[in-house]
Design brief:
single chain; Rossmann fold; 11-stranded mixed sheet; 5-stranded parallel sheet; globular
Length: 346
């Protein structure tokens, strides 16, 4: 398959180019497109055959549900049985934006889109290119991240092409993603709202609107995951990641010890530091992820840096943990899953 590469102006997307991609969606094809979180791999959410193509292109397990993207609130009522009252305050405050809400699905949504579940995950992206693509396609678009299953999610079109060239119909290049981690997924089907995947909207922000909010911390043992990122190992580069947590001085000391140990065994070691600690380490394979006091600087870089370590050919990545507050919760969630829970307490 030849993959069409479509470059658009991020701020003023050329509508004729968007319509080329929309025609592909209408015909049951696959288009990767930018959002404010990561790049998504889109297909007609109401076409089961199209949705199944997503799983095939990504090599994704078919019980891993897809998120449905809309561009107008009216589209939500076609996808769900009902909208709980508590959802309206969230929609008013956070849509469009990086918040996915889980509802009981309507009969219009095929099981192929929801991984066989009777619930559907829906969000309205805060990205002009994404919204225009949905509008011009005339259908809601199911879209997981546009990477091969298990690999770090792509935050730019070049990373999409690395994984998906020859596997999908088109890629729209609309610049780098802002948040760099996927949307927060919030389950509204029970009495207490539950964060199934932390993301761009923080637990603290949700609590300001809803009061009590729980966080689902399960990584394995889930038979039917309601959200992407719950059941399978995700976001992983080729190298093995070890996540080191604890007080900063102890993190630094432990990482230096581990680096020497791995290097003695003949492994090429990469260190994922922060702006505050970068100068504590030596060697050409040390990268600062960003400022630990400004987690957005880390989240926006995280996946692209994991891919960079792959290109550097490292065997092992030693990553510093950061506080699990605000956006730091999403960053640590991704690092824990990328490491396969290889967590070392310093």
């Amino acid at each position: 398959m030849e993959t069409l590469y479509i470059k658009v102006d991020e701020k003023n997307p050329e509508i004729d180019k968007i319509r080329i991609a929309a025609e592909i969606i209408k015909k049951g094809g696959l288009v990767a497109f930018p959002t404010e979180t990561v790049y998504g791999l889109g297909a007609n959410a109401l076409d089961e055959k199209a949705a199944i193509k997503i799983f095939e292109a990504k090599k994704r397990p078919q019980d891993n549900p897809l998120i449905v993207h809309i561009q107008d609130i009216k589209e939500l009522y076609l996808l769900v049985k009902e909208v709980p009252q508590k959802a309206y305050s969230l929609i008013e405050k956070f849509w469009p934006g990086p918040l996915t809400l889980i509802f009981e699905k309507s009969e219009r949504v095929p099981n192929g889109t929801t991984g066989g579940l009777d619930t559907v995950a829906v969000r309205m992206p805060d990205h002009r290119v994404a919204r225009l693509l949905i509008r011009e396609s005339g259908v809601p678009i199911a879209a997981p991240s546009a990477n091969l299953s298990g690999k770090p999610s792509p935050t730019n079109a070049q990373d999409v092409m690395e994984d998906m060239k020859g596997r999908i119909d088109a890629v729209i290049d609309g610049g780098d993603s802002k948040f760099g981690v996927e949307s927060t997924v919030l389950d509204l089907t029970g009495d207490i709202p539950i964060i199934l995947r932390p993301g761009g909207i923080t637990k603290e922000e949700l609590e300001e609107v809803l009061g009590r909010v729980q966080v689902e911390d399960a990584i394995s043992g889930i038979e039917k995951p309601k959200s992407p990122g719950m059941k399978y190992r995700h976001y992983s580069p080729k190298a093995e990641i070890y996540l080191i947590v604890g007080e900063i001085p102890l993190q630094i000391k432990k990482i230096k010890e581990l680096a020497k140990e791995f290097e003695r065994k003949g492994f090429k070691v990469g260190i994922l530091a922060t702006a505050q600690t970068r100068k504590e380490y030596f060697g050409e394979n040390v990268i600062s992820a960003g400022d630990r006091d400004a987690p957005l600087t880390i989240s926006s870089n995280l996946f692209s840096l994991l891919r960079k370590f792959d290109r550097m050919g490292v065997d092992v990545i030693l990553a510093e943990g950061i506080p699990e507050t605000g956006l730091g919760l999403a960053v640590m969630n991704r690092l824990k899953r990328a490491s396969g829970n290889r967590i070392i307490k310093a």
